[in-house]
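Q&A FORM
Asked by: J.P.
Topic: structure of Dihydroorotase

PROVIDED:
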Amino acid sequence: MTTYLLTGARPLGGDPTDVLVADGVVAALGAEASRGSGVHVVDADGLVLLPGLVDLHTHLREPGREDAETVESGTRAAALGGFTAVHAMANTSPAQDTAGVVEQVWRLGRDAGWCDVHPVGAVTVGLAGEQLAELSAMARSAAAVRMFSDDGRCVHDPVVMRRALEYVKAFDGVVAQHAQEPRLTEGAQMHEGVVSAELGLTGWPAVAEEAIVARDVLLAEHVGSRLHVLHLSTAGSVEIVRWAKARGIDVTAEVTPHHLMLTDDLVRGYDPRFKVNPPLRTADDVEAVRQGLADGTIDTVGTDHAPHPREDKDCEWGAAAFGMTGLETALSVVQAVMVDTGRLTWSDVARVMSSAPARIGRVPGHGRPIAVGEPANLTLVDPAARRVVVPEEQATASVNSPFAGRELPGRVVATFLRGRATVLDGTLVEAGASVERASGRHGAHA
Ligand SMILES: NC(=O)N[C@@H](CC(=O)O)C(=O)O
Ligand SMILES: [Zn+2]
Ligand SMILES: [Zn+2]
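REPLIED BY: S.T.
REPLY: Here is the structure written out as tokens.
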């Protein structure tokens, strides 16, 4: 395995230091990190070094919708986005509701080798919301599932939700809820408010999310279990989670990059790239989720990377699928709205995009401090870079990025998975390829 010396990197945005990556771990720091022969030097002057990013919310679409994404293409996108571990949501076809299917996805991830893939187990059989899936069999499988979610659908029956919360306690699991009251959102096409009224589109009221968040934090308190609220999008949801945490309820919450940056104003152009579940909300909601992330009410940024094939997006608004890609832009969006505005430090970014998600998902070896002896799951970022998002140039198999054409700050220069460079010079390093070749330094892009 190649040994790397990152010279002048700034761990968590702190003071520059040298970092030696050898034998899968952070082998030395500072003056101890010497050059030696055969060491591949990465000039990290001015670059920020973060623990490898961990996403609790990725849709990899395999099995079933390989036209939108595969484990291979999705994890390539993840590595380029600086991720060393992703959680693959259960709304595949067949759904990830048995030990067999979660093991299949886990194996596909291991064989692809771009990042660790942790399958999320479905809460209910077929995500139908009725009968609990075989949660403990998935927990005991090779995939060692700890997070369960019917994401894409809400576990709306309070009795089923209560049972799931009770059940996962046995193996320290967490139920991740897609908070959407189904009756209040029938036929909904966008956020319910001024813009939906103007456009004449069926609205999705904030209360449809907040009612479920409120119910679920109370259920989590009642049964003494862990709840994670996915893609929180309204000011009211932030308030409810803040209240629940103050009360000592074991709840964690996520916000997506798109809900941190974009508003429902964008729907005016009827471009289905902006159609997502939950919908883009108002500027006040965006401000509230930014504040919630800054003050720790919201624990994590999850991408909700939701690739869709062209035919499901290149159509009129009403017929288009909900969802946006996000793995390759997440860190840049967080930099733009939170770091470059002074609301989060890079150390905070390491918390919300690495250590907190690793803790919530019970992912060993990720989200660890950058210290000697720790597994070398690392992401090297150039915060001074700027680039225009071109979906066709991304590794994801789908092009439904809401950031297409936008200039965003920051660029992932390198990603290390247990000491192996998956990305160098912003380019994927094929397994077995010599580092010089793959890094393009000698112009070889064979
Ligand atoms: N977010 C979305 O708009 N879509 C997701 C489902 C989900 O995360 O709810 C998908 O699977 O396409
Ligand atoms: Zn969802
Ligand atoms: Zn999702």
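FOLLOW-UP: The chain has a mean pLDDT of 96.
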